[in-house]
Design a protein that fits this description.
The complex is a heterotrimer. Chain B is an all-alpha fold. Chain B is built from five helices and no strands. Chain B is elongated and about 55 Å long. The chains are: A alpha/beta, B mainly alpha, C alpha/beta. Strand 17 of chain A pairs parallel with strand 2 of chain C.
Chain lengths: 578, 172, 278
């Protein structure tokens, strides 16, 4: 293994369908992991199911990175078909290098700047000379050489990945990689211009390699989820697909429902049966589920919904990220319906937050909505093994067989023992109608008041401990954020610190119930607050105004997707803020 | 074969008789409940009394059958001549504004059917002991009928047609 | 529930709750309640092993009137909720009940998918061709020229669904039609439905004395189906189409693969966590 590592390099690989840009990106990231690096990869696609243009955006670094950088150091184009579509996503800087196949024609003007050096490598031609080879493996060889990765390590990875596809493809892929790795043009280019900056790895241990959807899946099963109901929707489908075989392995199951109305009701039915249950969806699906989430609240049936946010409203931009389902998650339920809303802050946090949400929903017999977004869900990271410690939370309070069992008995903490079907003597009817303590429907003012109080009390009085937020750093300036912008804010804070400005980063993980007192404590001594979110209507800022007291000068950086907020944008806020 | 001719042994006859009376009692309770819920206490009380009488009769028959193991018959295997037991009131004839007069008329028609059931057996059963006991039961039903007639005489038919000034409402 | 009663053979009454139904006197739904409790008693099912899942509407109130586990959920979604319960708890006997509006209008999509999914559920639609709880509007089974609703005073103008036909084309494996005027026959039919492996659908003609008083005459029109149960969907389709919807009996029954998700065997976390390692 190489002892030297790329310092912090961002690479974009583009190509139309069949060129293999995404596969090359994935292998590059895996290779980075095997070389002891950290990293992240996003994928971008055109609207076609097959054959569309695609871009793999990879960031590789010797220190942990959890967001994309402001711009790309290298663009490798397998071809230029519809590449303009990605021009605004793949910002280049003055010193960016472009590697392109001359057979693909001129670099489009939307992409190229006069400064950019272009290295023409005939990737197609090189691949053509090798049986069963594809140009993307030539590209992987070029990039591996440029990054200083070890070719033996790469060879092993290629063998591992392609041996399933047959000997000819394995051998061809390996040969294509070698052709790229030893291509004189890239070697010359490396000698002629500065190579990527290099540094020592901050951490030499094993790397975890996963996307946010998988993280949520792992958190869910760690939390005890054993049933899921699923209706496909971008970008939540891969979470459901990940769960399906794994739930089966754990003795549970996943059912594909006819629509989101069915999936959430299936979750409620399974949970009524005593099995911790969840579903995953995205904005439009969440909207369909809100009626039944009211039922889960009223009937006090635990239910977990992971909502992967995408550009909205309506079909919006399903393949891109926005933090715009905060309003509906907080306020979308009908009636007075206290429930939990949590937001995962980064990839590792998808595991923690989902596990925590499952445990809370079970303990508090209510609905927990976990918000992630397309950026977290569908980008892959290379990080050190995530570790976290959740406070002890009681499992669902299960009723013993009892005469005159009262399902909704008033208790001090608002939590009533729940009889699981099959328990003798304790038969009851869970009801969405307002009810008295036994579960019998009631329209009496006193019953309504008691049950509303109880359902609110169990959530409001619960001690959520330290996980309500992730707070890092100290300073008279605080940045308040949530969800996937957290990683970007953290990187911006590091840059500001390097410039001599220390900033406190407060990322809210538990959004409902709100923790105004805890935030007030954290803001003691803070003189200015910057709110960062990816929403056109400033949903997070409005939420902060509604639930918290922030008595200091507050600025807001809020803008819609589809382009992710960059660290530079956040740093820029401080340049103009006097 | 008529139902009466099938009553060839005492246990079968008693099983039918118990079912007839218990089903009638349960139904009268159910009807009393309906009238309670719909704020018709007078008719509720009427049905409760009728339930009481049916239950007394059922107990009497159960006493007759003490010591014997009556056959268990599925509800649909009785093969009653009517949809349910002969003494069981038809829910379809209920109306929440009904009067005691109407309730008693329905009860009387059921008692008549019960009487006929026992009477037929007292005439047609192949078993002599069954015929004799059925005869006793038929006489008892006749007595019930006479009592109901007296009761009815004290509850004359309302002079005017009953109408409902309140429209139905929307609970959910 | 008292413990001693639970150890003796239960009577139909033992499957009822102490709650008195809010249904109008004369309503067919009382007979459905009685038929369900008779069927459960006949099958000697322990109360705690049965769940009755319902939606919203007059008939959906039935869950609260039984002494088994129940869920009175949201309008139209009872089948979905029940499917989740059955998937998670295959050991439970799961019944689903509701009205024609609940099951065929707002819940129509769940109905056809429950038919094709063929989970081991029994679904009872108490069909009175009207929305009762909201004061008498036309439902998907109401005749187009029924003008008594204020919402559609000229009649709905829309031809009704034929529930049995809908179930057949959606792939249901057991299709029956019962009548509340014959509660014992209905109880027997429900036993057959519950014993059937797979999704069993029972449409029950259940008159509404308040909004459809003319239905009190159904007892003069309803008759037994003049044919044996068939396992041939073509024959069943012909029968359903040729009928006026007033014949009762088990129209169609066949063995289709029953959907049972999961294996129920917990093989442990195994390699799941290590998949994340590179």
């Amino acid at each position: 293994m190489s002892t030297r590592h790329p310092c912090d390099i961002s690479i974009a690989i583009t190509g139309s369908g069949g060129a293999g840009a995404i596969t090359a990106g994935e292998l590059l990231l895996s290779l980075a992991g095997k070389n002891g690096c950290f990293g992240m990869m996003r994928r971008s696609f055109g609207p076609q199911i097959r054959g569309g243009e695609a871009a793999a955006q990879v960031r590789i670094s010797h220190v942990p990175v959890e967001c994309m950088n402001d711009s790309f150091d290298l663009l490798l184009a397998l071809d230029w078909r519809n590449a303009e579509r990605f021009a605004e996503e793949i910002a280049l800087h003055q010193d960016s290098l472009i590697i392109a196949d001359p057979a693909a024609g001129e670099v489009p003007t939307a992409i190229r700047d006069l400064h950019h050096e272009v290295i023409p490598v005939p990737m197609q031609a090189l691949a053509k000379d090798i049986p069963a080879a594809r140009p993307n493996m030539v590209a992987l060889g070029l990039l591996s050489h440029w990054l200083g990765f070890c070719s033996d390590e790469a060879g092993k990875l290629i063998d591992e990945v392609f041996s399933k596809k047959g000997e000819q493809i394995r051998a061809g892929s390996r040969a294509a990689f070698e052709a790229g790795f030893t291509e004189p043009l890239i070697i010359e280019a490396g000698e002629a211009r500065p190579r990527p900056r290099r540094g020592e790895p901050a951490f030499d241990g094993a790397r975890w390699h996963f996307n946010g959807n998988q993280g949520c899946g792992l958190g869910a099963i760690r939390g005890g989820i054993r049933f899921a109901a699923a209706y496909p929707i971008t970008p939540a489908s891969d979470l459901l697909e990940w769960l399906s075989p794994r739930l089966e392995q754990l003795g549970g199951s996943l059912v594909q429902a006819e629509d989101e109305l069915a999936s959430i009701n299936m979750v409620i039915g399974a949970s009524f049966g005593g099995v911790p249950s969840m579903t995953a969806t995205s904005g439009p699906g969440l909207a369909l589920m809100t009626e039944a989430m009211g039922l889960a609240v009223a009937s006090e049936t635990p239910a977990v919904v992971v909502n992967v946010m995408r550009g909205g409203p309506s079909t919006g931009i399903p393949t891109k990220s926005e933090q715009v389902d905060l309003n509906i998650a907080l306020h979308g339920l009908h009636g007075d319906a206290p429930h939990l809303v949590l937001g995962a802050l980064d990839h590792a946090d998808c595991i923690l937050t989902t596990e925590w949400a499952v445990r809370l929903a079970e303990a508090l017999q209510t609905v927990a909505i976990v918000l992630t977004d397309q950026l977290l869900a569908q980008s892959t990271v290379l990080i050190s093994e995530p570790s976290y410690e959740l406070p002890d939370i009681n499992a669902r309070l299960v009723a013993e067989p009892a005469e005159n069992y009262q399902r909704y008995v008033i208790t001090e903490n608002g939590i009533s023992p729940m009889a699981i079907p099959g328990t003798a003597s304790s038969t009851y009817v869970a009801d969405g109608l307002e009810h008295c303590e036994s579960g019998k429907p009631s329209t009496a003012a006193a019953d309504h008041q008691l049950q509303l109080d109880k359902r609110s009390r169990k959530i409001e009085k619960f001690d959520y401990g330290e996980h309500w937020a992730d707070v890092r750093g100290e300073g008279v300036i605080a940045i308040l954020t949530w969800g996937s912008t957290t990683a970007v804010v953290r990187e911006a804070a590091r840059r500001l610190e390097a410039q001599g400005l220390t900033v406190k980063v407060i990322a809210l993980r538990l959004l409902l119930p709100a923790s105004p007192k805890k935030l007030t404590t954290e803001l003691a001594g803070v003189e200015r607050v910057l709110v960062v979110e990816q929403s056109h209507s400033r949903q997070f800022y409005r939420y902060l105004r509604a639930y918290y007291d922030i008595a200091v000068d507050t600025h807001v950086l809020a803008r819609p997707g589809p382009l992710p907020i960059t660290p530079a944008e956040i740093v820029g806020q401080f340049e103009s803020w006097s | 074969m008529s139902l009466a001719k099938k009553m060839s042994d005492m246990d079968t006859f008693l099983a039918y008789s118990v079912a007839l009376e218990e089903e009638a009692a349960d139904r009268h309770d159910e009807l009393a409940g309906m009238m309670d819920v719909h704020n018709n206490p007078e008719v509720a009380e009427t049905f409760r009394k009728l339930a009481h009488y049916s239950r007394l009769h059922a107990k009497e028959i159960r006493d007759h059958s003490e010591g014997s193991d009556l056959p268990v018959i599925a509800p649909w295997d009785f093969g009653w001549d009517s949809m349910e037991g002969p003494e069981t009131a038809d829910i379809g004839e209920m109306n929440y504004l009904m009067t005691t007069h109407q309730a008693l008329k329905i009860a009387m028609s059921n008692e008549k059917r019960a009487h006929n059931f026992y009477f037929d057996i007292s005439r047609d059963s192949p078993d002599e002991a069954v015929r004799a006991l059925a005869g006793e039961f038929a006489d008892e039903e006749k007595e019930h009928l006479a009592l109901l007639e007296k009761w009815l005489a004290n509850c004359p038919e309302p002079a005017a047609e009953i109408y409902d000034p309140d429209p139905p409402h929307m609970p959910e | 529930m008292d413990q001693s009663a639970a150890t003796l053979p239960l009577k139909p009454k033992d499957y009822k709750s102490a709650l008195k139904p809010v249904w109008c006197p004369g309503c067919g739904d009382f007979a459905v309640l009685n038929a369900i409790t008779k069927a459960l008693a006949f099958m000697e099912l322990p109360r705690e092993q049965v769940a009755l899942i319902t939606g919203i509407g007059c008939s959906s109130r039935i869950a609260a009137y039984t002494g088994v586990y129940g869920f009175h959920g949201v309008h139209g979604r009872a089948l979905a909720l029940a499917s989740g319960l059955k998937a998670a708890r295959p050991d439970m006997k799961v019944l689903v009940a509701g009205g024609d509006g609940d099951g065929l209008s707002i819940g129509g999509n769940h109905f056809i998918h429950a038919c094709r999914r063929n989970m081991d559920l029994t679904y009872i639609i108490m069909d009175n061709e009207v929305y009762g709880m909201t004061k008498g509007q036309a439902s998907p089974t109401t005749a187009p020229d029924w003008t008594a609703s204020k919402l559609t005073p000229q009649g709905s103008g829309v031809r009704p669904f034929q529930p049995a036909g809908l179930a057949l084309t959606a792939g249901a494996s057991f299709i029956a039609r019962g009548f509340t005027g014959d509660p014992n026959g209905l109880a027997k039919m429900l036993v057959a439905a519950m014993e059937h492996q797979g999704f069993s659908f029972v449409q029950v003609l259940s008159p509404c004395p308040t909004f459809r008083p003319e239905q009190m005459q159904w007892k003069h029109h309803v008759r037994a189906l003049d044919a044996e149960t068939t396992n041939n969907p073509i024959e069943a389709a012909q029968r359903i189409q040729a009928d006026d919807g007033m014949s009762t009996g088990i129209i169609f029954q066949n063995r289709y693969p029953v959907f049972r998700p999961g294996t129920g065997v917990d093989a442990g976390m195994g390699s799941i966590e290590s998949e994340f390692l590179i």
